[in-house]
Target: C-type lectin domain-containing protein
Amino acid sequence: MDGSENNFANWKESYPKGDGDNNAALLCSSGWRSEKITKKNRFICEADSCEGNAEPCAQAVEVGDKFFGLIREKRNFDAAEGACQALGGHLASIHSASEESAINQYIKANGNPTDVLIGGTDSASEGNWQWSDGTPFDFENWKSGEPNGQPGDGDAVMTVKNGGSGKRYWRDRSTDAAAAFLCVFDTCPPSTLP
Ligand SMILES: [Ca+2]
Ligand SMILES: [Ca+2]
Model:
């Protein structure tokens, strides 16, 4: 600190965050953001951007203005949604190909489980897909022939790694089927399970 009076502020929208122990101001190209002081960023007073000089969220990946965290312990749909909510989020919703591409890179770098539950469900009304986080169902990436209403109730969406190509597509599966799952958060979650 240079001791000068702080009489100027340029906080990025939604910052500073008063929760927890965010007590450092990081100067980013888009405006200031508050972060927990860590070994990585405690000596950074100024920088041209936030990229490359801080790792504000080790347990999830930041895509756009959201954070996605993979949990590889297998849960069925309801238990997975409950686990995400316990961390302050929901099962993930996906809204664009570019968002899904970034998410898939993150999944690939974290064990790349074949099946990953996300928050799509048509349990309320067959064929009327909704996201458990309440956002609009405005993007889809179904594998050819899906959704087909099976196996089981066919009411839960999993993104499934496709054999040889390694690409991921969506399939409807039983809400009773347990799989690794992806949560979405507005802010960096306190933790995710390995
Ligand atoms: Ca269904
Ligand atoms: Ca299916």
